[in-house]
Amino acid sequence: MKRTFIVFLLAFPLLIFSTQTIKFVSGEEYPPFIWKDETGRPAGITVQILQLLEKKLDISFEIELMPFSQALEKLQTGQADMINFIFKTPEREKFLLFSEPVMNLESRVYFRKSLNIKSFSDLTPYLVGVVQSDENERLLKQKNPSITFRYYKNSEEIVLAAKSGNIDVFVMDDLPAQYYLIREEIFHEFSTLPAISIQQVYFAFPPDRQDLARTINKGLSQVSRKELEKIVGPFARPSHFIPLWVWYLLVIIALVSVGVFVFSVILNRYLAKLVTKRTAELNKKNEELTASNEELDALNQELRASFEEMEAMNEELNQTNRELEEKNKQVLAFQNAFLKLLDISSKMTYETIQEKDFLFETLKIFKEYAKQIDHIGVALKSSEQGKTLFVICRDKDQVMVQRIDRQIDFQDVALANTIKEIAAQVCEEPVERNDCRLQFIRSFDTIHGVLFYSASDSSLPEENLRRLADFIATFLSLRSYIREQGIFHKKLLLVMTKALEYYDYYTKGHSQNVAEYAAKFAEWLGLSKETIRRLYWAGLVHDVGKIFVSQNILNKNGYLSSEEYEYVKVHPVKSYELLVEAGLQDIAHIVRHHHERFDGKGYPDGLAGEQIPFESRILSLADSFDAMTTTRPYKNGMNVQQAIEEIKRCSGSQFDPKLSEEFIKMIVESKMIKGS
Length: 676
Known about the structure:
single chain; 676 residues; alpha+beta; D-Maltodextrin-Binding Protein, domain 2; 5 domains; 17 strands
């Protein structure tokens, strides 16, 4: 008895200060959550979370990987203390104890981007890959009972089948899907439909290990959302690609423009030097002839004929000098016209520029340069079916535009006669000259129309007119591309805004108000039209990330608890991720930082002062002003004067002080602000 007591006394300090070891079991291969790396050691998201819990709780985990069924059996028989992420079901709750939820796991349908799939009903014609006995099969059948499935042993087999082209559609949990798609370098080839389910995953314990469950829950509560996102982030990422041909096209246009400009400058300088040199030579010749004339005056009548001959030679040289000067004027005129055309081309990035306005200016500038042209015009395929657009320039102050009810075949052998006939109708008088020359306006294999003209002489190089036609074709191609992208982005932003309003009914009207306030304030500050446009769309979708926040929290009739507020604070980052995924990086960074504070106490990144993007500081003022002046079920909205006093109070802490001052001025002076 005495010996036993002594042994207990010796072992008691070790029992107090030794680190608790938890036997942790898991299925063998479930990337990216857990798997064996090349050294045979466990790796993945689960392992990193366990390492984080070890630091926070001063415990250690002994990890053992085996088939999932065997791991579950060990947990039930008490041979293990804890099992990896599993879903909570009523059956499992009968014999297992669960932790607090660790993370959400979404399930989605992935499909190749080349397929015309927009909803679950579009999946009927395709074979959909799924892991055998996976719950996702049942969930997807609820969306579309007509789907045909192809079964695979695990997630890796599905992605390899997609890479080899055996299937084009599959359903899988998000994180494993992204992990294998990125690993196989085919992530950019696939898109997704909305999530078919969002489930929570838990750690599980034997029923008699409530003490261990409480310890793990305590550790999980100390793991911040940022720490969890830092662990999960490297295993899944979005990807966006800009078509390579667009970059090539822009580089070629820039190089050609610079090349033509440099060539024009060099040619101008060369001709200027040549004229100076020839003028000096002619002056010298003139002086010599004058001296000869004085000498010839002293000679007799017999030499008079020689003197007259020399005088005729002098006149010829003068005529040559005048011709050179005229050529120099033509070169200067061409250079001036080219610079004006470059100025017009700088506006080609604006999708709202009208074809007729562009053609007005282009033809007027070229007509001013090429005065020997009687008339010059453009015939283009119209956006209206069965019509053709005609723009004709007779002089710099007379430009005629008409859409005729006739569709012209631009490959017709009698095209010149057709153009001449219609041009006479548009001008309401016969075309003076019989000739009508054409230059096709084409880009790649597309013929947009023709450039037609008649000239009083043939001194104008055909090459200059061909370049003018190519210039117009480039404008039409780029404008078409920019307009299509702009329409797509606008529709996408509007869909995002409407989706948020259906999800969060307090948001209805708020996004529209913020967009209008932000755009009006940007206009007040004298910012560019492009910046005003960007701020309007950023205001419209700044809260779209709230769809990741529970509706019970968003639509709560009262103030949020601190824990609920932490959930809401994730929405700027989610808004940013959605916009980047949609290819809207230009407004994504504005939205991400609209809840940052000037004193650095905001979120999500804690930026301060001018670290916060300028446009985000504008959006913050617009968002806060609408929130202040809007009545909610749990608060009455401020009047305008109260809102102004609140902005003054928070100037320098929450808001940029200089922008706050300007915003207040705009509120006071503008009659368009709500409630003013």
